[in-house]
Amino acid sequence: MNAFEYILYIEKDEQSHLGRLLILVNTFARTDGTHEIKGLTKLAKLDFLLRYPVYLERALNQINKNPDRAEVKPHERESVESKMVRFKYGPWDFRYRKYINLLIAKGLIYIRSEGRAVHIGITDTGRQTAAKLLKDDAHQDTMMRARLIRQHFDRSATNLMNFIYGTFPEIGTMQYGKEIAL
């Protein structure tokens, strides 16, 4: 499958992307509403680790944590969804703004500006929706990995970006639209 076919394939699965992002924002938001994800760049880097568990496994290994905690399934190592495509800004899917806007329109998350920074938080409706998603066994791996990412990679956007590019240098050197080898 070439990059164009891959992008068409993953474009069809919009609901799974929205659900994954909602779970991620919910995991990083404190129940008292005091914590938000600061910046789209940070969201993208966190989602990179969540969306591609093989890279989460490598990231855990890089910080001397047990990579088996990512619990990567055999099908996740070989499926088309596990292949990361390099976009213009590394592991930054060009559809993030669309997904964020859809989640806002559904009343599930909010954004607020503080200076030049955008803060992404979750609404009460978003928490309720995330709780419903998490009752489904299909989302348990996503939840477990989101918690693992929060525990080990809740860093500033700059520090997280430096870690990602330092740990996965292949991301910065590939041509746009090409799959990044695992």
Report helical residue fraction. Answer: 55-70%
Beta-strand residue fraction: 5-15%
CA-atom Rg in angstroms: 16 Å
Q: Which structural class do you get from the secondary structure elements?
A: mainly alpha
Q: Give the termini distance in whole angstroms.
A: 16 Å
* Count of DSSP strands: 5
Q: For the largest beta sheet, what order do the strands appear in spatially?
A: 1-4-3
Characterize the structure shown.
By secondary structure, the chain is mostly helical. The chain contains 10 helices and 5 strands. The chain has helices at residues 3-11, 14-28, 40-51, 53-62, 74-78, 96-105, 124-134, 140-153, 157-167, 170-173, and strands at 37-38, 84-85, 109-114, 117-122, 179-180. A 3-stranded antiparallel sheet has the order 1-4-3. A two-stranded antiparallel sheet has the order 2-5. Strand 3 and strand 4 form a beta hairpin. Helix 2 (14-28) packs across helix 8 (140-153). The longest helix has 15 residues, at 14-28. 29% of the residues are buried. The model is unreliable at 80-84 and 86-90 (pLDDT under 50).
Summarize this structure as a short list of keywords or feature phrases.
10 helices, three-stranded antiparallel sheet, mainly alpha, 55% helix, 182 residues, two-stranded antiparallel sheet, globular
